[in-house]
Design a protein that fits this description.
469 residues; mainly alpha; Growth Hormone, Chain: A; two-stranded antiparallel sheet
């Protein structure tokens, strides 16, 4: 059972405008900020005097904060108030963005990005939890989760464009000042406009689960990030071992705990299992390859970072439109069937982009980007719907946290996989370096397409069982 305070005047009970607009705006801001450094890495690295290893962390540190915090803040939101965690997340994003905007060194900037990730986790998990609570089913929930999913694609599209434009006009730091202002406005507006919701039975804080989960995911993503400089280095192997031990301890704690942060019984629900696996596959096979595509266009095809961001915007723009329109698809097509179609289209788009050699015009990528974008948007909308439909009504935050944790862990693994495959035959300053990079990227796209098709097959074949709410 879930409780909700009386809504403020002007908003509908259980489905207010604020309960849709503010989480959607927060998701847009979080994803724009997530992708902003893609177009300004050179300027940011120069301004912070960041070396090669530090540059990897400049790009990856926000993923660490996101993935390590999502499940924890989702459960905290359910138990201690979704509005409360949402407002705290917005305020913390403003503080962390101030640190990034004023950072004198790469270390300070990276620390700020990690905290930005934790703050974004609160906005994403609590925000989708608010939507899941406020829109209880039927066409209204389909519309609300579709809009939320559309913001993922739009944020990915606009982040690099906005940061590159601001960097060209003034300085790379200006984006982070814009984020400060937007986050502060979001926090104030949410504090005034949203009503509080939480689970009817308030649980205690699962400290062992919180510590083992956060530390385990942090160790895993740190190992993946550092692995790009050498997978057999002792520090990387130690981090992988620590991740395995901590995550195993987390599972043991959750299995034995009376008030677990993640109810492992949820994995007996086919749709919850699909929401987690589908999100992981989306991160691994879709976000991973698309995150690196802008770099390939820069290094192998000579596009500027701003132009690369605009080209990639075709994919994310189509993703935005497809997610918005997903609710208009025939009702006889279930969420799992539409997720299968979305992942299959993503794979088809990857295949359509194969074979672009250096010197060929980027227009050749357009059909593949468009098809992959439609697939991504459809998958995002269905994953958002599954995240809240596959759990009890009072655990919407937990469902969102688990879903998004899987997405961003998958994205981190996916980026590392794509970079490793694409650059395996590249020798810096060699005359054929550009050709080797495009050949390697083709292989990475084929691997990503195969993984997406495997996810599509799982979504199509998994059984739907009746679920008690």
């Amino acid at each position: 059972m879930t409780t909700l305070e009386s809504p403020r005047a002007g908003f509908r009970d259980g489905g207010s405008t604020a309960a849709l607009v503010l989480p959607s705006a927060a998701t847009l801001l979080a994803l724009m900020n997530y992708t902003a450094p893609l177009a300004t890495l050179t300027d940011t690295s120069a301004g912070l005097h960041a070396g090669a290893t530090a540059q990897i962390w400049v790009m990856s540190s926000i993923s660490l904060g996101l993935a390590a915090s999502l499940l924890a803040v989702g459960s905290l939101a359910d138990d201690h108030g979704r509005k409360r965690l949402f407002v705290i997340g917005a305020a913390l994003l403003a503080v962390a963005s101030t640190a990034c905007a004023t950072a004198p060194t790469a270390a300070v900037f990276i620390a700020g990005r990690i905290v930005q990730g934790a703050a974004s986790a609160a906005l994403l998990a609590a925000g989708l939890g608010i939507i899941g609570h406020s829109f209880t089913g039927g066409p209204e929930r389909a519309r609300a989760t579709g809009i939320w999913g559309a913001m993922l694609g739009l944020g990915i599209a606009l982040g690099p464009i906005a940061s590159a434009g601001l960097a060209a006009a003034v300085d790379w730091r200006l984006w982070y000042w814009v984020t400060v202002a937007a986050s502060a406005l979001l926090a104030v507006t949410a504090a005034v406009a949203l009503t509080e919701s939480r689970a009817g039975l308030r649980r205690g804080l699962d400290v062992p689960g919180l510590v083992t989960m956060t530390a385990g995911v942090a160790a895993l993503l740190s190992a993946i990030t550092l692995g790009r400089t050498g997978w057999t280095r002792p520090g990387v192997l130690i981090l992988f071992a620590a991740a395995v031990a901590l995550l195993a301890a987390f599972v043991a704690v959750q299995a034995r705990g009376r008030e677990p942060m993640l109810d492992l019984a949820l994995f007996r629900r086919p749709l919850f299992l699909l929401s987690v696996i589908g999100a992981f596959v989306t991160g691994l096979a879709v976000i991973g390859v698309m995150s690196y595509l802008a770099t390939v266009m820069d290094l192998a095809h000579g596009l500027t970072p701003f132009t690369s961001a605009l080209v990639l915007g075709i994919w994310s723009g189509m993703s935005f439109l497809a997610a918005l329109q997903a609710r208009r698809l025939p009702a006889r097509l279930s969420s799992r069937h539409l997720l299968a179609i979305g992942l299959a289209l993503s794979a088809l788009g990857d295949v359509a982009m194969l074979g672009l050699d250096p010197g060929e015009h980027w227009w050749r990528l357009l059909p593949g980007l468009a098809v992959a974008g439609i697939g991504s948007g459809l998958a995002n909308a269905m994953l958002a719907r599954l995240a809240v439909e596959s759990v009890p009504a009072d655990r919407a935050g937990m469902g969102s946290g688990a879903n998004n944790t899987a997405r961003y862990v998958g994205a981190s693994v996916g980026v590392a996989m794509v970079v490793a495959i694409a650059t395996s035959g590249v020798h810096e300053h060699a005359p054929d370096a550009a050709q080797a990079l495009t050949d390697g990227t083709d292989i990475a796209m084929l691997v990503s397409a195969a993984l997406a098709l495997a996810g599509a097959a799982l979504a199509a074949l998994i059984r739907e069982l009746p679920q008690s709410r």
